[in-house]
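Consider the following input, taken from an annotated entry for Deoxyguanosinetriphosphate triphosphohydrolase-like protein (Hirschia baltica).
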Amino acid sequence: MVETFVPPQRSIYASDPLQTRGRAHEEAPSATRTCFQRDRDRIIHSSAFRRLKQKTQVFVAHEGDFYRTRLTHSLEVAQIARSVARTLGLDEDLAEALALSHDIGHPPFGHAGEDELDACMQEYNGFDHNAQTLRVVTKLEKRYPTFDGLNLSWETLEGLVKHNGPVLTDGKSIDTLPQAFLDYPQLENLELHTFAGPEAQVAALADDIAYNNHDIDDGIAAGLFTVDEICEVPLVGDVFKGVRKEYAFLDEKLIVAEAVRRLIGIWVDDLVKESRRRLKKHNPQSAEDIRNLDEPVIAFSKRLDDKQRVLRAFLYERMYKHFKVNRMRSQARRILKELFELFNREPNTLPPPWRQDAEQTSGDRRARIVCDYIAGMTDNYAIEEHRRLFNLDSMI
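Applying the prediction step yields:
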């Protein structure tokens, strides 16, 4: 059978690289790439992106090489985001850039690592991985001679900051935001009270699709729950039962793979259908119109969203609260807590150039330097740093 899908033409409400609001530091345009393609390439070549290969979400990187890392997760998100953006006539390159970069502010050890760093930084205005992503791409990456960061376009920075919706809502003031946001001098220029552009909205929900389904895959592979148990979850269970019925003698690994493939298709189809309904309803004439609406235009239907909440509740109980995961989380938190306390108390134990910067300051600024150093670690590097500093055998 010949595949017949024909991508639609570019929509009038797609973000237009020719109409970009530019970069913080002016640069000559590329002769071969749009500004959004350059952003994507800069993200891929960044140190923070490469380190995602040894950062995980639920498991620890050394637990097994078949679990998703944040790198493989980001690639899955990018694939879904490009497909949805293409179908809706949006800018695929901007959607891909946002999908690839959405996790680069995450510390080691997933959510456990973020929770612990936030606890360590409570006296210093906390830690937030979304804010840290902005800090990475505007300050911490050092790759250019005339500026810090990656000098990404306005549209990419806006999408990174607002991919989950407006940052300032319900009368919230800017000074209540995480410190890593406040340290960016042009933060208010990102129009924090509006929604992000359509490509950022696509990337955010592509993230949901990817982690919903790869958590099913990884949870079964890790033995945290069984196919029979996931079959009790509405919608998801129907798909698994359908695959089992159609392929009665198929190996369980292939049953899981086929079911997850079908589930991703269901999520994507629903997202496209509901988004088209909302776009027709609002009839935006530009990406700016989409930003100024009172609801996102990229969304799941209420029916699927309800099913999704049931799935997340199942995964929370059977996977994220499993005693094996709790043990990993406990160990991870202790590692980061002890590293933070040592580096903050004894900055001369930091490697250069972190040591020089930390020794020249104190209080909030020193703590933020220590936090930046730890947040940039991979799972394996954090384990090794802790071993070198706290295991006496490593001195022999």
